[in-house]
């Protein structure tokens, strides 16, 4: 891995194709767009926006509409391993900083790409940054986002990989006119590999999550005991008494069908 030795700060931002949480429509990823915004606000920065995937993807226009002059696309198929493609590209010349989002909104969405990429390139990785405070003498000072709005300043040596948290500055709006002025440079990477693990998976529609039980806030031990032993109030139902067995059985069967316990 050859590191950038020039005086200009070189930053590469990795972007992926996002998905709207309700409609599933392709869009820019929320944290990837924040990574682009963070890099665009750095002073004296040579920015490269990089996407591994389909060069003809229309959703890339959401990124170019932020005012980018160029987006480089490493052409690969959906079943190819993006980590291998990216690491092969960066081995030729590693930038000072590689920024990513927290996790993709499509595919595996595991958030592990920065870790595997850092392992391949032999450089440090920082998770969930909100801002880059300064870069001098081969060291960057970054602000890491912590739970409950807390922040922690860290010093990390160049080059490094960092994922950008939702706590970072919101990305600027994407404009159609600016998107048309962006150049897309397509590049082929030698030695692309198939993602063998992904090829063995079976993809299915996710089931709705189970609803959380209502939490009773009790101030004393007696209140907690009462809440734990209290019976749920009945809001409906029908008492069966002195009815034919067949009718009572049918009513029970209909109730089980209605509640989804059994299926026809």
Automatic annotation (TrEMBL):
InterPro entries, alphabetized: ETF_a/b_N, Rossmann-like_a/b/a_fold
Protein origin, superkingdom: Bacteria
Domain called Electron transfer flavoprotein alpha/beta-subunit N-terminal: residue spans: 30-186
Keyword annotations from UniProtKB, A to Z: Electron transport, Transport
Gene3D superfamilies: HUPs
SUPFAM superfamilies associated with the record: Adenine nucleotide alpha hydrolases-like
Name the record gives this protein: Electron transfer flavoprotein subunit beta
């Amino acid at each position: 891995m050859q590191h950038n030795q020039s005086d200009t700060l070189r930053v590469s931002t990795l972007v992926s194709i996002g998905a709207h949480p309700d409609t599933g429509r392709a869009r820019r990823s929320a944290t990837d767009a924040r990574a682009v915004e963070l890099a665009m606000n750095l002073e004296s920065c040579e920015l490269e926006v990089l996407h591994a995937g389909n060069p003809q993807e229309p959703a890339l226009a959401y990124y170019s509409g932020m005012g980018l002059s160029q987006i480089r696309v490493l052409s690969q198929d959906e079943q190819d391993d993006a980590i291998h493609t990216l690491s092969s590209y960066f081995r030729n010349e590693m930038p000072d900083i590689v920024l990513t989002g927290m996790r993709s909104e499509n595919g595996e969405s595991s958030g592990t790409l920065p870790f595997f990429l850092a392992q391949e390139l032999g450089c440090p990785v920082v998770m969930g940054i909100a801002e880059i405070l300064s870069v001098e003498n081969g060291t960057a000072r970054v602000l890491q986002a912590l739970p409950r709005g807390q922040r922690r300043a860290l010093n990390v040596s160049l080059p490094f990989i960092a994922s950008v948290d939702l706590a970072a500055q919101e990305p600027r709006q994407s404009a159609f006119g600016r998107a048309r002025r962006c150049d897309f440079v397509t590049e082929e990477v030698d030695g692309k590999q198939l993602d063998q693990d992904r090829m063995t998976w079976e993809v299915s529609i996710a089931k709705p999550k189970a609803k959380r039980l209502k939490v009773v806030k009790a101030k004393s031990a007696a209140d907690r005991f009462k809440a734990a032993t209290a019976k749920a109030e009945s809001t409906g139902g029908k008492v069966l008494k002195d009815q034919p067995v067949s009718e009572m059985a049918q009513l029970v069967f209909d109730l089980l069908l209605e509640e989804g316990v059994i299926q026809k």
